[in-house]
Amino acid sequence: MTGKDPKEKKSARKTGPGESPAAARKSKAPAAPAKKSEVPAAPAKKAPKKAPKKAAEAGSSSRAALFSWGGVPGEELERLPLAAALDRYRDEYLLANDTMLRDHTHVKIGGRALHFATATTVEILQNILMNAADDADMPLCVMGGGSKILFDDSGFAGLVLRLGGGAFSSVMPLEEDGVPLVAVGAHALLGRLVKYAEERNHAGFSDFVGIPATVGGAIAMNAGAMGSSISERVEEVTVMDLEGKVLTFGKPELRFGYRSFSLANPPRSGFPGSLGKERKKRVHFPPDGIVIGAKLNLGAKATRREIEKIREKNLKFRRDNQPKLPSLGSTFKNPPGGKSAGELLDLCGLKGLRFGGAEISPVHANFIVNLGNAGSSDVLGLIWSAKKEVMKKFGIDLEPEIVAFNKWGERHVF
């Protein structure tokens, strides 16, 4: 399935992936939207909510979008001060105040977020991003599945945004030139993709069994396991920039490295690089846009017996070599050549080292686990201690694989 040609005349929105016709009818814009930048003067006479418009544009990319993503050009959306937008679109944003972030991260650490929003459609994501990007005072964090992010115990004094539901969670079969492909929304769980491929006798994702990540998060950091990287399966990636444009890029336009993803030639506007220095410090937005979907290759066919053998081997490895307690997964990236980060940490005798309720796992030294009452400062203390010891013994500066924030939205620099 491909998106509409940006040159086509706008027409009534078609039902999106996983969306019922009734839901599509409900999302029609009101006949008389509120005036641009108008904030209701009195609570008793609020202006009608302006539903996101229905036209589709693929942005500046020459490639067609993977899904019939809704969405509109940025200049057609109403821009408001973020506080006013959060109030007006509270229901559409699924907005929650004072949400405990520990409930949304795998390590089970993090205080209250001032605002926590979930975007279930492209139009809503556009609306949130444009209003949030314009707000110089409100910290913004766009998060994936929460497996690689550490929030502060005192919380996040801004807006935490995640994707959820609808097209963002869809998994759709495709085929091009006889090659089996799948179009996947960024919020779909990686485990669901593994199961989807295996049920169709493809082992292309079986190395990722047991990894707690979303597809978008896995692509954004080029997740890898058992010698494989998800980049080997990627054919196209669809992203959204801070201006709400939806852009789709093919394999030649993508650059993957060890635990990294970027665009070969990112647009000059609409991305964090175009923000001012101070604003950039408080906006956690992927440097090459939010991954909202991808087209993936399912890989070669395999027999059920071959798939089960690969699956069981990988699950056994994880059972035997990775802790079961809440964690951030691998804490550090493996340095180039030589020994892995886990081996270096083990040789420094760091297994079992504790700070408060956090511990460098006795099972695998590259995992910091939450023993039940860990705080963000405990984890940060272990990270700094581990870096110091490895540098002292081997002269190697380990680079964390995780991201961590203070209350004001600024990233910790290790």
Write the layout of secondary structure elements.
Blueprint (H helix, E strand, L loop, with lengths): L20 H6 L55 H7 L7 E5 L11 E8 L2 H13 L5 E4 L5 E2 L5 E8 L7 E6 L2 E7 L4 H10 L15 H6 L3 E2 L2 E2 L4 E7 L5 E5 L3 E4 L2 E4 L13 H5 L1 E2 L5 E8 L6 H18 L5 E4 L10 H7 L6 E2 L2 E3 L6 E4 L5 H19 L8 E2 L10
Parallel strand pairs: 2-5, 3-5, 3-14, 4-20
Antiparallel strand pairs: 1-2, 6-7, 7-15, 8-9, 10-11, 10-15, 12-13, 16-19, 17-18, 18-19
Write structural notes for this entry.
The chain has 3 domains: 50-166, 2-Layer Sandwich (Uridine Diphospho-n-acetylenolpyruvylglucosamine Reductase, domain 2), CATH 3.30.43.10; 170-297, Uridine Diphospho-n-acetylenolpyruvylglucosamine Reductase, domain 3 (2-Layer Sandwich); 322-404, UDP-N-acetylenolpyruvoylglucosamine reductase, C-terminal domain (Uridine Diphospho-n-acetylenolpyruvylglucosamine Reductase, domain 1). The strands form 6 sheets. It has a 5-stranded mixed sheet with strand order 1-2-5-3-14. The model is unreliable at 1-76 (pLDDT under 50). The chain has 414 residues and is an alpha+beta fold. The two termini are 43 Å apart. Strand 18 (358-360) and strand 19 (367-370) form a beta hairpin. It has helices at residues 21-26, 82-88, 122-134, 190-199, 215-220, 277-281, 304-321, 341-347, 376-394; strands at 96-100, 112-119, 140-143, 149-150, 156-163, 171-176, 179-185, 224-225, 228-229, 234-240, 246-250, 254-257, 260-263, 283-284, 290-297, 327-330, 354-355, 358-360, 367-370, 403-404. It contains 9 helices and 20 strands.
